[in-house]
Design brief:
By secondary structure, this protein is an alpha/beta fold. Helix 3 packs antiparallel against helix 10. The protein is globular. The chain starts with a helix and ends with a helix. The structure holds pyridoxal-5'-phosphate.
């Protein structure tokens, strides 16, 4: 089958046409060739906590190298349930409501396979995270985009129009995907917004998949709230999160999913089909992290990233690329209209050629024709690398 046919089958010609993963990887290779700083991929190369890595190494040496129960080791499920209680107040049964997954990515994939059917429509807010749209597309489900309004000032928030959301619903709508805090725009859905979304979900009997992988990256006054904690929402909400970002272990492929027991069996079944289980020794590492790291770890994580955010915001402003201030997560969308190039992918190339800083074309997060004046910068970088990137940006 020619590649173009594959692309159109997956709907890739309509979603993120020019800035697919391959484009991000091409930027990474070019950045390496130039010896530049990669703020493109959300790899976050900050140090993982020692307690996490040491416990994983100890687990390998202790022989935890074989398949685990399909929903994960009891120790980790118990630690996740305790974490849910600590951070959300939710009482979660570790034996029936928690699934340890192969990353948040594996969690969403399994949940979509278990709970949705080909042809089902799923609401996504735009700008969206590419994997959300692509996962649905690969399973022949239909992402329906509801645009968030671009902030009117750098400090203002991305907002959604409830009427636009309602207008996007059809008899085939089965679910909403919320990403809070969001990649790429850092939006944190407020209580009022989540209440409005919940009312829609309840009225139309929709699942809400909530990707909360950046739950601990929250700045200033903003507060992270899971829609599962709102009245009437627990049963229909599938919480997806993981350790990639919080423990800086993106390559470990370790996440989790929390859902009502009546859905968890089917989701676990599909997760088993693709992944069998999450990496066994690494589950011990994550469990040790959840068990032993106190509140100060999470506070420090947010403080460190707030500081990184401040530095890159200043550099982007100095470089004449007006940044939108993210309330959470660790990405910044900035206005790249001053850069040469007819579209965002070319602007990203121009920035890389001129400064050695790699970014992602904003068009990767919008429907075709949108986001062409935006670039996304990841700031979860070691301080020295971030400072280098900031100096390079200022040289523009
Ligand atoms: N969800 C969002 C919104 C992300 O931005 C990312 C990574 O960039 C992921 C999920 C991936 O999570 P994981 O590594 O747990 O699969």
């Amino acid at each position: 089958m020619p590649l173009t046919t594959v692309a159109s089958k997956l709907g890739l010609s309509e979603l993120a046409p020019r800035a697919l993963q391959s484009e991000i990887r091409a930027m990474t290779m070019e950045c390496d060739r130039l010896g530049g700083v990669n703020l493109a991929q959300g790899v976050c190369d900050t140090e993982p906590p020692a307690v996490v890595t040491e416990a994983a190494i100890a687990a390998i040496n202790a022989g935890h190298n074989i398949y685990t129960r399909l929903d994960g080791i009891g120790r980790l499920r118990t630690a996740i349930a305790a974490k849910m209680l600590r951070f959300t107040g939710m009482v979660v049964n570790p034996d029936t409501e928690v699934l340890v997954t192969s990353g948040a990515t594996g969690g969403l994939h399994a949940a979509a396979m278990a709970l949705l059917n080909p042809g089902d429509e799923v609401i996504l807010f735009e700008p969206f995270y590419g994997y959300h749209a692509s996962t649905l597309k690969s399973l022949r489900m239909v992402p329906v985009l509801v645009p968030l309004a671009e902030p009117v000032t750098a400090e203002a928030d991305w907002t959604f129009d409830l009427e636009a959301l309602k207008a996007a619903l059809t008899p085939r709508t089965r679910a909403l995907i919320i990403n809070t805090p969001s990649n790429p725009c850092g939006k944190i859905f407020t209580r009022e917004e989540l209440e409005a979304l919940s009312a829609v979900a309840i009225e139309h009997n929709l699942f809400v998949f909530t990707d909360e992988i950046y739950e601990h990256f929250v700045y200033g006054e903003a507060e992270h709230l899971s829609p599962a904690t709102l009245p009437g929402m627990r049963e229909r909400t599938i919480i997806i999160s993981g350790f990639s970002k919080t423990f800086s272990v993106t390559g470990w492929r370790l996440g989790y999913l929390v859902a009502d027991a009546k859905w968890l069996g089917a989701i676990s079944y599909f997760h088993d089909l693709t992944y069998v289980c999450a990496p066994s020794a690494l589950q011990h590492g994550a469990a040790a992290g959840l068990e032993q790291l106190g509140m100060e770890f999470y506070t420090q994580l947010a403080t460190d990233h707030l500081d990184k955010r401040t530095r890159i915001l200043a550099a982007l402003t100095d470089a004449g690329m007006k940044p939108y201030v993210p309330r959470g997560a660790y990405y910044i969308l900035a206005d790249a209209s001053r850069l040469p190039g007819a579209n965002a992918a070319l602007k990203a190339r121009a920035l890389l050629a001129q400064t050695g800083v790699a970014s992602v074309a904003g068009s990767a997060f919008f429907r075709a024709g949108h986001g062409e004046d935006l670039l996304r910068f990841c700031f979860a970088k070691r301080d020295a690398d971030l400072d280098d990137a900031c100096a390079r940006l200022r040289s523009l």
